[in-house]
User: Fold this.
Amino acid sequence: MTESSREKPEIDFPEGEAPTTLEITDIIVGDGAEATAGSTVDVHYLGVEFESGEEFDSSWSRGESINFPLRSLIAGWQVGIPGMKVGGRRKLVVPPAQAYGAGGSGHPLAGKTLIFVIDLLGVS
Assistant:
């Protein structure tokens, strides 16, 4: 199975307290080009809230991957994606400080710990 034909992942409801530091877990280790901090990445991803388990965003649901420079993303992705290789699938559990900041900042996800499953499709 190629990385582009993978199914949308399912994220099990987390147990315990939300972490206070970024957690990075490789689900599938890729064997392609490696993402670096300066990379532009092409990814499929799923995002859910840690507390509720509710999905808040998914490129799979839109039917297309997204392509963007890592430096323009939340800190959790800027730290959590470099070192990942094309063909890989990685789970990031991102605390508020590395996501959208503390509650009350105006962003609907502010103050929330977020879980992402990311498939790295390409790097440039």
The chain has two helices and six strands. The mean pLDDT is 92. Residues 75-80 form the longest helix (6 residues). The chain has one domain: 19-123.
